[in-house]
Amino acid sequence: MPCQSTFTERMCSVRAAGASMPTYTASSTRVGPETVSPGSRSAGCFIHQPTTSTAITRTGIHHQRGNGWRSPPKAPPVCPSDGSSGGGEERWDTEHRLRPNLSGGGELRLTRRWGIARRRDAMLRFDGAGVSDGGPVRELNEDAAFLGPWLALVADGVGGAAAGEIASATTAYVVSRSTGRGTDPMLALDAGVRRAVDLMRRASAVDVDLLGFATTLTGIALDGARAALVHVGDSRAYLLRSGGLTRLTRDHTYVQRLVDDGYLEPSRVASHPWRHVVTRSLHAGVVADDEHPEFSELTLVAGDRLILCSDGMSDHLDDDRIADLAGGIAPGRAAQGLVQEAWLAGASDNVTCLVVDVLDLPEDRESAAGRGKAPAGERFGSLLDDSNVLGATRLTTY
């Protein structure tokens, strides 16, 4: 029997111009195919209930049922270190519901509190390579990625929405500047996400071309032996340990919700017409209680390999194929092979992949590594163009 569930107000972003947009009834109702019908084919709009509003995107003016575009609220305050809600103010949900089994005796420790256990028995760093390919179909590469010694992340601008490349590049840049050696990984990721959202809100308030822009984000930050993961949307992170592949993230998509609630077989996800509809993203609108990014704590060891990718890759390669292609070779060759395989499998979206090895930090480099500094690293995709980063050249008043 499928589980009984309800939809309250929910915001979804259509990530493909050709996808039909689902709409929901105005009242809370059981999730199921009978409560959802194809709606507008316009991409990049957000769905709310119950009033009527107008969304302005680069593809024109689209009317939709929703709460309307509100004035951007102030940036949410940083959650207190004791994990309290701060008197009902907006805060991120730090509970990560996915509990994978890690092979090789590893442990994925989850937290509902802010801060990470201070384990100092190892000093680790990232080293790897990445590829971001816009492909022959899309006009723009809306994927952005960053890889440095303490941070790896992938952000995928909502396909077809206004300025997806700006949302992804800005988020990647701001989060990369918020992390660094000697900073708590989870708090640094949280601070970076908040700054990015605040910047997006202020920008969309003064620039009509930015209404509706949004991005996914999947990133892992590292300091010493401490690591933390932030995830929102359908970009993915995998852990390859001792030959076994574990998916560290669960897609925030409409079809994943149907699978979770028993209305859709996993084997039918790849062919579902609404497989690109995401139920969570970073955007300038009002965030519902169940739409916050997920933060979790990771335990990594030297010898682990991480794979981060946009849905352009994961939509076409299953976990077994990713494990086969990602292991046993240099990160650069692995990343190239994974992206090439995605194209051969029929990918039409932008494809981005980072392959990241977890290595011991040599003792002679521990003292030399700068503390509190933003990490030097390599940029990919839309992040290569400074004009895509809000506050850099597009809106110089910030």
TrEMBL record:
GO terms for molecular function: protein serine/threonine phosphatase activity. SMART domains: PP2C_SIG, PP2Cc. Residues 128-358 form the PPM-type phosphatase domain. InterPro entries: PP2C, PPM-type-like_dom_sf, PPM-type_phosphatase-like_dom. Residues 24-47, 63-92 are annotated as: Disordered. This is Serine/threonine-protein phosphatase.
